[in-house]
Amino acid sequence: MNAKEAYLSKPWLAHYPETAAPTMEIPNVSIPDLFDQVARKFGSKTAVIFYGKKISYRELKELSDRFATALDSLGVKKGDRIALYLLNCPQYVIAYMGALKLGAVVTPVSPVYTSQEVRHQLSDSGAKTVVCQDILYDNVARTGVHLDNVIITGIDEYLPRLKKLFAKGVLSKAYGGMEIPDDDLIAGDGLLKMSDLLKKHPPEPPRVDIDPVNDLAALPYTGGTTGLPKAAMLTHYNIVACQAESLALWSHLFEDGNETIIAFLPLFHIYGQVVIMLTGLAHGYTLVLFTTPDMDDILNAIERYSASGFYGVPTLYEYLKEYDKTDRVNWKKLKIIVCGADTLHETTVDDWTRRTGSRIVEGYGMTETASVSHTNPVGRPKKGSFGVPIPNVTAAIISVDGDEFLPVGEVGEMILSGPNIMQGYWQRPDDNRETMLDLEGMRWMRTGDLVSMDEEGYFHFFDRKRDLIKYKGYSVFAKHVEEVLYNHPQVKAAGVVGVPNAKVGQLIKAYVVLQAEARGQISEEELIAYCKEKLAHYKVPQIIEFRGELPKTDVGKVSRRELREEGEEA
Question: Is residue 149 within 8 Å of residue 192, measured between CB atoms?
């Protein structure tokens, strides 16, 4: 079997559970139509629990219908972009679904963005309507972007009475220096209140014809790890496909209308947006929604609501495996515990299993894949692998600088093909030419990730292509060096980057956070000596810098981009 056939034969299908078909028929339906079908079927069931406040599917449908009617009255038309600059709250779900019912396109904005970052996304997407958390309005005002409609909403509008004052205090602390606009400012700036719009307008939105295959649903922006963030164009079909496919290898564990999912991951991020919010609503699940990731509240909610699904990121599991209150939860009772958004270190997996007796199921996805392309089958996970492609998705490994298929086991760039793959980047023709390619009569997307596939069809992550370090002609994977550092008992966190050097190309620099008791006790020389015992000579860091903490992305990844920029400046 040649290299191409090794991938196109899909060896991973042998490890699918009996309940999962190798291909799935994707319904030709829009996201809001799918939601309405579920809302009619499970009308009385709880869709969202927000700090004790319960909203049924029937109520959620009515609220989204009211908001769609309100947007229509404001002149929003099919194809218009609507920015959601919101924290996790019921209004996020209402605004998202209401906008899609008009055929508008949502562009979620990170609530930790500065005014400059918000300006870029508003300008680049062409959004003229913003649904904004009241405490974030200052950043919108400072962008200077002309907007037709600014709709503000408060976190307290769907909170039980006793929680309202507490929530305002928490947000004021988290967003210090930013003030909630008062009535005078609201009137003076011509702002609209979402609560007023929902009261004023009936749940009677106009019927808009949506072509699920071709009409855009969302413009989520990538993290901007190389240059300014850019938007992935996702159609209704892309997202509906991902909702259906991503659960396929676990579907035997779940029952529509009878599951409870803990939803604390940010909904602006593709992971929380599609895997948790939209997939949950497409299956009639109850979402226990949190604005801030308070671990005590989350652990209490898992037990109180008998949660069946928990979705996290590696840094969260690294934290929880040491947290003194983690044992409040009987983790073995959960049907699924999932990790995504970054590489899960094997030491974290081992420590978690020893602590809780449960297993973390690792997956892989990107903004450009509508969130998911791979996951480990629950009954046959492989440690150190992010799993196998989900149904309808084909993955292959090609040469980094070309388009030749590489033999099984070799590391190269992973490419993906499937119905959940984006249409391309919004207004980025040059990026699209670099990213999208046609091979063997199929449309593929370059992921920019260095990966290998083993003989069983499981895929293993090595590094981002941009994070590959070139030292004296050798290729060094930053992740490999980080894994060795993480295995040191006194290392809490590490980030490895290449620093430009005229003589060797790039020096290997490690930024390290030590455990509290080890700070001041371990030297750079000792850690370098430790690495020399575990790594080939050319992989050993030449520079180690101790830090109290490392910069993180919005979902808790160590931000190598920021570390790389610091190293280059130094």
Answer: yes
